[in-house]
Design brief:
With 529 residues, the chain is an alpha/beta fold. It folds into two domains: 136 residues, Chitobiase/beta-hexosaminidase domain 2-like (Chitobiase, domain 2), CATH 3.30.379; 352 residues, TIM Barrel (Alpha-Beta Barrel), CATH 3.20.20. It has 14 helices and 17 strands.
């Protein structure tokens, strides 16, 4: 089958022809200049590893070369791109670096799956590095297509986060939301300010709070699952993500989900005493104090330092499951926290509970559970955008079925397979297309230890979400996607990415690597945000 018919996400326009395919030869070069050189270098690194060819970067193209360049695309917005393949050349064009990165990912899928591995000795027989003749013009449906990684319940190293960025970006997912703080842990370094009259010792947020995690049976709090990011670590993640067209969205969960902060900074508690660290998966029991002036000093300092190391536009302040806060106190604090974030020049994001509060103009409401109407109302009244993360269609922590060795089971319905994560429309419940920011798949990590387990819960469901966010609703069809999804088994396996081998998909692939030698048992949860 023509590999152009297997692309994920499905392009907006694709035309194949019966003309001869392009064959990459050892003499080929990659032609690019200026801003196109970054994507050209990434393409060269991918192809050199797989083919062993030199593939030098040059300024001018000859027949048989691959060309990357910028050009005007009147019918495409940000991230739009085009791919043109003939027997003589491959040409990738876009209006911006993000689009050119997307073009490289599409070309990657047009090569045989062997492109995902290292060059192998073939006894003199070279693989046929061919690309079908095709014309593609593509642009995304929604601007934000993301995943969320809960690094608070279980820590992931900088290297592990980079690996996750590598995997997600090939499917044109372009945002990674890092859930940095929760009841169990605080994962981001906050420096003590030069002027600190209250005496809050912000270094304790990580020296105390950074040592926590959710303790599930048979797991324990091993050093590999606790820790924190220095601000330099965070900058490293942000910079790496930017090279792969991924935006980092940091979250400080407020005013609930703050037990780790209350354990580290006793002055935040009404009685001035530190709260004990809690390693259970329990939620809804902690809160900041609306009457304490240090609450606002604390939030202003934390959000200020985080905004300073976050070049992207978004700052997530949580707002969910503040079950013991009290409505008036919740409204007072969240209104102020949102204003602080907006005052730092950021677009404030929060879980949909915070839509009950009057939000700054253009805020983002992330819908995950419960009533959708307040989010729609905010969108109508103040131009809020809605980020769709309905639990039954996007939550990657849910078990696939009752036999899954890890995952949670609090969401009603199910099973929670690739199909349920594909067969829905984010424009629902009165949301207009213009009010949608995008879609996001959250991975909460109470039961997860390390990237192999994280990937097993994430894939293939995140691939479904990638197409939901990218491809037009009218262009998507479940059975066609099932066929295309199966062709990615070999690609993921060659990359060493674990995935759940759904029994209703013909993977036609090398077997997926096992996700864990010793699966982690999961406790049933009522909720998990």
């Amino acid at each position: 089958m023509n590999l152009a018919e297997n692309l994920i996400p499905r392009p907006q326009h694709l035309a194949t022809s019966g003309s001869a395919a392009f064959t990459l030869h050892a003499s080929a070069r990659i032609a690019a200049s200026g801003g196109a050189l970054a994507s050209a270098g990434q393409l060269a690194a991918l192809l050199r590893r797989a083919t062993g060819y030199a593939l030098p970067l040059v300024a001018e193209a000859l027949p048989g070369d691959l060309v990357l360049e910028f050009t005007d695309m009147p019918d495409g917005g940000p991230e739009a791109y085009a791919v043109s393949v003939t027997a003589e050349s491959v040409r990738l064009t876009a209006t911006d670096p993000a689009g050119l990165f997307n073009a490289v990912q599409t070309l990657r899928q047009l090569f045989p799956a062997a492109v995902e591995g290292a060059a192998e000795g073939t006894g003199g027989t070279e693989p046929a590095w061919t690309v079908p003749a095709v014309e593609i013009a593509d642009t995304p449906r929604l601007p934000y297509r993301g995943l969320m990684l809960d690094v608070a319940r279980s820590f992931f190293t900088v290297a592990e986060v980079k690996q996750q960025i590598d995997t997600m970006s090939q499917f044109k997912l372009n945002a990674l939301h890092l859930h940095l703080t929760d009841d169990q842990a605080w994962r981001i370094e906050i420096h003590n300010p030069a002027e600190n009259p209250s005496g809050l010792d912000y270094s304790r947020l990580t020296s105390v709070g950074g040592q926590g995690a959710v303790d599930h049976p048979g797991v324990g709090l091993t050093p590999g699952h606790t820790g924190f990011y220095t601000q330099q670590d965070f900058r490293e993640i942000v910079d790496y993500a930017a090279t792969r067209n991924v935006l980092i969205v940091p979250e400080i969960d407020l005013p609930g989900h703050v037990n780790a902060a209350l354990a580290a900074l006793p002055q935040l508690n009404p009685d001035g005493r530190p709260r004990p660290m809690n390693t259970s998966g329990e939620v809804g029991y902690s809160t900041l104090d609306a009457a304490n002036p240090l609450t606002y000093e604390f939030v202003r300092e934390v959000l200020g330092q985080l905004a300073a190391i976050t070049p992207g536009p978004y700052l997530h302040i949580g707002g969910d499951e503040a079950l013991v806060t009290g409505h008036d106190n919740y409204v007072a604090m969240v209104r102020e926290f949102a204003a602080i974030a907006a005052g730092l020049g950021k677009t404030v994001v929060g879980w949909n509970e915070y839509a009950d509060v009057e939000l700054p103009q253009g805020a983002v409401v992330q819908y995950w559970h419960g009533e959708l109407a307040p989010a729609v109302r905010q969108a109508a009244e103040n131009g809020a955008r809605i980020l769709m993360s309905p639990a039954a269609n996007t939550y990657l922590d849910q078990k696939y079925d009752s036999a899954s060795p890890i995952g949670l089971e609090w969401v009603e319905g199910g099973p929670f397979t690739w199909a349920e994560y594909y067969a829905w429309d984010p424009a629902q419940g009165g949301i207009g297309e213009e009010q949608l920011l995008g879609v996001e798949g959250p991975l909460w990590t109470e039961t997860v230890r390390g990237n192999r387990q994280a990937a097993w819960l994430t894939y293939p469901r995140a691939i479904s979400l990638a197409e939901v966010g990218w491809s037009r609703q009218e262009d998507r069809e479940l059975q066609d996607f099932r066929r295309r999804l199966g062709t990615f088994g070999e690609r993921l396996a060659r990359q060493g990415v674990t995935f759940q081998e759904a029994p209703d998909v013909d993977w036609s692939a090398a077997p997926a690597p096992a996700f864990s030698d010793e699966p982690v048992p999961a406790e049933p949860q009522v909720r998990n945000n």
